[in-house]
Write a structure and sequence with these properties.
The complex is a heterodimer of chains A (299) and B (370). Chain A is built from twelve helices and two strands, in the order H-H-H-H-H-E-E-H-H-H-H-H-H-H. Chain A has 299 residues and is mostly helical. In chain A, strands 1-2 form a two-stranded antiparallel sheet. In chain A, 50% of the residues are buried. Chain B is built from twelve helices and 15 strands. Classes of the chains: A mainly alpha (299), B alpha/beta (370). The interface between A and B is large, with 36 and 40 residues.
């Protein structure tokens, strides 16, 4: 019998990659604002549905954007921009107003849940609740055999994107003035204001960058398995678990947590039914909350 | 002489009995409303739309035939247990329907069956019935019973396709469980071996771990009992990781959504089907009208929903709406030439048998295997 281990490792890396993309943006926004931004999940879905509109829903646009890999990349870029724009608008017209009123984290959480529900319903109205796929014909899909584990082209892009974004973001936050401003806001927003940091502008950019990464996650999931308006909550839950177990607010921690989650989930159901996958994920979360609440890496 | 008298009395009794059995369809003049439970929103709303399309054509045909002159169907958006219970309570207690035409999601039907049985409401399912929904007084299906379908699939796989080992991915509902159980029973009776079975939720889209395990087992057959996009993803992901087994699905696999998601990965997939092998003029006429009106060929749910309304409407007119009489009439259904196949109801347990054929996906089309 062929060994299942290489494929389980590949599956773990693929799942971890998706969770990491969500956790990267979520952690960045949480680090600066200190609230659980539930709209992060639906922002991912908006990225995916924008590409769906450009490549499949609208015939004229579809003819243009499906011409070549280059035009498809342009569609993906527009999808990322759309997600970033939604992130910016949410911050500008919802979260900023709550910050101005000095609302509690609970109010932020409830407001983000409300916005999440509205945007999800909006997607369902625009695109119906039907499952949609971004990918082409499976016969055309390129797969790679890495030491016995098979991954598709899209899944390889997921893994490469995570690594690139993680290091770029990590270095950018560490070396740039913007990164130091984010850190200052994260430590104490009032002191950051006193020392002259334009906190609102920085937070807006944090939302733009975080949402753009979420948009990319949604697009890649759309190419890999498909899109549905409710996809955001599942993505978000796994991203949040990854962030908490990796170390909330820590860019590298979120990615580490995501891959740990991917491995524990996939190897956890090696000998038992796949239906236990979510139970294993939440079990891991509970263990971390009890044993190491600060996560693997501290902020 | 005494013998002749006895015979004469017996003849008279038989004639009286025949005379009192009212099989004649009497046109109903007043307004008649049937109910329907169809998912009109959510991930599987496309299936609900197709059911509604089939029922609408049936409603028009019933009115044209004149057996019910003012005929309406009240559609309720329902799928799971909670939404189906709410919908059925509304239909029975507010709208006062005596007949519910179609529903297809087994957990929803299982939730409401006790209510429809208690209230003596004739209730049709367009999906195949598992054992949990057989032996009811007022609940029927136009679709073949799961036991029948699963047995035919096992026999086809083992005897015709020469497949000796099988892995199963199935819905985590009594529908999927019934397919798994019956297929395994028959397949192993024949000498085959089921290497593993994996239950998945109705909205599952990630099958990577299951297909990795199945790839390692390398069975001759991968039986997937699911529907819509989830089924499409199972097929796609199986082929992506290199599962080379023949893939087979139940009648629900014959769905454009599956082909849309799985794409070329679906090529070679085998499905069971109850579609008429040699469609009559009526069937062809129905298919043409459906396509002209809705822009696609009717699927298995649309054809079953059409047949459900037609059978129920005829029974309603025959029995003037008396549901005990209707239940008896429906149980008497033998070789009903429906657009979904030839329907025969087994009087013992209300299970339906239909001739089964097998199809294979070839160049993106479901083609009958001759």
């Amino acid at each position: 019998m062929e060994s299942i281990v290489p494929q389980l490792i590949a599956n773990s890396i693929i799942a971890g990659g998706i969770y990491a993309l969500v956790a990267l943006g979520f952690n960045l926004i949480y680090g600066a604002t200190k609230f659980f931004n539930l709209t992060h999940g639906v922002t991912a879905a908006i990225g995916g549905y924008t590409v769906y509109y450009l490549t499949k829903k609208n015939e004229a646009l579809g003819m243009f954007f499906n011409q070549s890999t280059g035009t498809l990349v342009v569609a993906v870029f527009i999808g990322i921009l759309a997600a970033a724009l939604i992130g910016f608008l949410l911050d500008r017209f919802l979260y900023k107003k709550l910050r101005d009123r000095k609302a509690s984290p609970m109010v932020f959480l409830v407001a983000s849940l409300g916005a999440f529900t509205c945007l999800q319903a909006f997607l369902a109205i625009l695109f119906t609740s039907q499952f949609q796929t971004l990918g082409g014909n499976s016969g055309d899909i390129v797969t790679f055999n890495i030491l016995g584990g098979i991954i598709t082209e899209v899944q390889a892009v997921v893994v490469v994107s995570v690594v690139l974004i993680m290091f770029t973001l990590g270095i950018f936050l560490k070396k740039s003035l913007f990164g130091k401003s984010v850190e200052a806001i994260s430590d104490d927003v009032h002191v950051a204001k006193i020392v002259g940091i334009h906190t609102e502008k920085i937070i807006s950019w944090v939302f733009v960058i975080g949402s753009a990464i979420a948009g990319l996650a949604g697009i890649l999931v759309g190419f890999d398995t498909g899109l549905e308006p409710t996809m955001g909550m599942n993505l978000l839950l796994k991203g949040v678990i990854a962030s908490i177990i990796g170390g909330i607010g820590n860019v590298y921690g979120g990615v580490l947590g995501a891959f740990l989650l991917g491995f524990v989930e996939n190897f956890g159901i090696w000998k038992i039914s796949g239906e236990w996958k979510d139970a294993i994920a939440f079990g891991l979360l509970i263990v971390f909350l009890l044993v190491r609440p600060q996560g693997i890496l501290k902020r | 002489m005494q013998k002749r008298i006895i015979i004469a009395v017996l003849v008279i009794v038989v004639l009286i009995f025949i005379g009192t059995r009212n099989n004649e369809v009497k046109p109903i003049e007043g307004k008649v409303v049937f109910g329907a439970l169809t998912p009109l929103t959510g991930q599987v709303s496309v299936l609900g739309e197709r059911m509604r399309n089939g029922m609408e054509l049936a409603r028009e045909d019933v009115m044209k035939s004149g057996i019910i002159k003012d005929f309406h169907i009240e559609y309720q958006d329902a799928l799971d247990g909670k939404s189906s219970t709410n919908a059925v309570q509304k239909l029975i207690y507010n709208t006062k329907v005596k007949v519910i035409s179609s529903a297809f999601f087994i957990p929803g039907i299982e939730a409401v069956a006790p209510i429809t049985e208690k209230e003596k409401v004739i209730f049709f399912n367009t999906a195949a019935n598992p054992e949990t929904l057989l032996n009811k007084e007022y609940l029927f299906s136009t679709n073949v019973a799961i036991r029948e379908d699963a047995y035919r699939m096992a026999e086809y796989a083992y005897n015709t396709a020469n497949l000796k080992t099988a892995a199963i991915i199935h819905l985590q509902t009594s529908f999927g469980e019934s397919y798994r159980m019956n297929f395994t029973k028959r397949f192993e009776e024949l000498g085959g071996k089921v290497t593993s079975a994996h239950a998945k939720a109705p909205d599952a889209n990630d099958y990577r771990t299951e297909v990795a395990r199945i790839k390692a087992e390398n069975p001759d057959l991968l039986l997937v009992i699911h529907f819509g996009s989830s089924l499409g993803n199972a097929v796609k992901q199986a082929r992506e990781v290199g599962v080379r087994s023949v893939i087979m699905g139940d009648y629900e696999s014959e769905d454009p959504t599956v082909l849309g998601v799985a794409g070329a990965a679906a090529e070679g997939m085998i499905t069971s089907s109850s579609q008429p092998q040699n469609p009559s003029n009526d069937v062809v006429d129905f298919q043409n009208r459906y396509k002209a009106r809705f822009g696609e060929m009717p699927d298995v749910l649309a054809t079953n929903a059409y047949d459900a309304v037609m059978i129920q409407a005829k029974a309603y007119a025959t029995c003037a709406g008396d549901t005990d009489c209707m239940a008896r009439e429906i149980k008497d259904t033998k070789n009903y030439a429906g657009v979904s196949g030839n329907i025969t109801v087994d009087t013992k347990d209300n299970s339906v048998t239909k001739p089964t054929i097998f199809k294979v996906v070839k160049d993106g089309q479901f083609v009958e295997i001759k």
